[in-house]
Each structure stands twice: as structure tokens, then as C-alpha cells.
Amino acid sequence: MPLKFQFQFAGVDFSRPSSPYRKVLRVSLTVLAVVLAGLAYWGYLHHLTHRTQPVARVSAAIAVKPAVTVAAATTLAKAASTKIIAVGNVLVAAVENASAKATATMAQPVSVAPSETAAQQVAAAPVVVTTAPKPVLARPLRVRTDQERLLIAAQTAFANVIDHAGKYPDAYGFQVGDFLSDAKLGEAVPVYTIEESARANYQQGQPVKPLLKPAKRWVFPVLMGDRVCCMVEVNQVGHDYVPGKGNKSLAMAWGKIQEKWPVEEGFHPLLLVNAAVPGFYFTVPELPMQNITDTIEMFYLNPGTSPADVILASWR
To answer: Least enclosed by CB within 10 Å: which of 92, 186, 210, 288?
Structure first.
């Protein structure tokens, strides 16, 4: 004989299928589940729409669940003891009371620690003290002297000659075995001229040296030891000093002039030019005859000097 499940609670028999209390219990549990699901969904929506009050939401969510659970348990016990049939109505009333309490709890203001005012934050912020930068005094521009500018132009011309001599050494007076790194720049040799008025009034035998005027031209010997390889020229144009090219033939002529009339014997040859006549001339003031000679003369077999009056007459 099969055993029947017997279940009674507070004197009420729930084991019979036809028991009205069993149906009431089933309806009550269904209503309770629906109410709890509705509360959960309501809490979810409230959480999405009230993100600015996280503390209140958490408190409400925590408060709702215990309130509903306690209210439901109390209602079930009362229904079982007093045999009330309309349990669903009581449960609904309990849920509404719990919801009202939860809403009241959420409506209570949440105490938040007072934040610092803007003035206090500004006062507490570190003060950065900036000092005005000291005015930077402009460095005075160095004004180079004419002698310095002349030397710079000569060094530029010398560098150009060395650069070209690497390809064509013989054109600049360098020989086989010469190391261009050993070449150096000699001292400036000033170049003079004679003005047209002085040339027109020149008399035979008149000293030439007092008639000489600076031609604003200089030549610098390029030396390999004691040997003059070539001359580099510098011209003054206005206030500028313009580096010129190297001149091998002038260097050879100047070497012969110094060899024939050396400084050790008291001679001081000077270079001359005429702007209207190409080439260079020279004069040796210490000779008894006043002279002006074309440097090409030094390439002849027996070089000599030319009378000054003859050359000056050809310049007129």
C-alpha cells in the first residue's frame, strides 16, 4: 500500500489535493515571486536613472530585500494561524508597506562630508613665485680693423689657391715632393700707383718714390719654406676687401727682383700698377737712376731697369 505524504502546518492540512489551503498557498507563492521580480526590475531601473546618488541606491536595495522577506514571513505565519483565505491580499499589503518604507529610506538625505570651498582650495594650493628674467644685454659687435679684414681676405685667397693646387700644382708654382700642408702665407706686399697729374708733370731725374700713392691692392707670397711659389692678390673695393687669384709669374719675377736687389744690401723694391695698363711694374728707389720697370724684364737673360721718364711717358 503506497504511503501518502502528510503535511500540516498550524492545524491546516495541505496534503489533500482538494484542500483549499493548498491552492491559497500556491497562489501566495506565485504572487510573492511576481512581486519580488517586479521589485528587482524596479530597483534596476532606479539604479540606471539615479546614478548621482550611489549611497542612497545601495541603502535602498539593501533595505528592500529584508523588509520584503520579513513581511512575507510574518504574513504567512498569520495566515496559517488564523486560517485566513485571502492570503494574497495580505501579502500585497505587506509588500506595499515594505516598498513605502524603502522609498522613505531612499528619500532621506545622505550625509556627505563637506568639501573644501574654492577659496580654501586656492589658499591651500602651492604658490609658484616666478621672477622676471634678467634682460639679456646684446653683445657688442666687434668691429674689425682694416688690417684684420685684409688678412682675412688674404687667407681666403690662400685657401682657394691650395684647393686648386691639389689638382694643378705646377700652375701655382709647387714642385714634385711639395706637401701643400707645409705651405704658408707670407707678409703683405703693398702695391702703389702714380696719379695721372703726377705722370703728366714728371721731369727726368725727379725722384719717383714721393710720387707713389697706395693703389688699394696687395699681394701676399705663398711660401714653401723660403721659396715663393705664387702670389695671391687682394683688392679693396669701397670698404670691402676682395680676395683674388694666384699669380705664379709675378711670384717668379718678384723672387728674381729680391735676388738681384736684396734687402740685406739696403735695397727695397716696390711694386707699381697702372689701372689702364695690364701687369705689374717695380721700382728700386736706392738705385742712382730713377727707374720704373715692367716685371716681365726679369725673365730676360740679362734683366735690367727702365728709366722712369720713359715708362711714365708711355702711361700718358
So the answer is: 288
Give the Cβ contact number of residue 271 at 10 Å: 24
Domain boundary among 77, 107, 137: 107
- What is the number of structural domains in the chain? 2
- Spatial distance between the Cα atoms of 161 and 169, rounded to a whole number of angstroms: 9
Alpha-carbon distance of 76 to 19, in angstroms, equals 17
pLDDT of 103 above 80:
no
* In 97-207, beta strands by DSSP E: 184-185, 189-194
Tell if the pTM clears 0.85, that is, is over it.
no
Half-sphere exposure of 112 (CA within 13 A, CB side): 11
Axis-axis angle for helices 87-107, 20-49 (nearest 10): 20
Domain that holds residue 29: 8-107
Q: How confident is the model at residue 85 (pLDDT cuts 50, 70, 90)?
A: very low
Find the CATH number of the domain harbouring 215.
Answer: 3.10.500
Quote the mean pLDDT of the chain: 77
Q: Is residue 123 part of a domain?
A: no
Of residues 281 and 105, the one with the higher pLDDT is 281
Q: Answer yes or no: is pLDDT of 13 > 70.
A: no
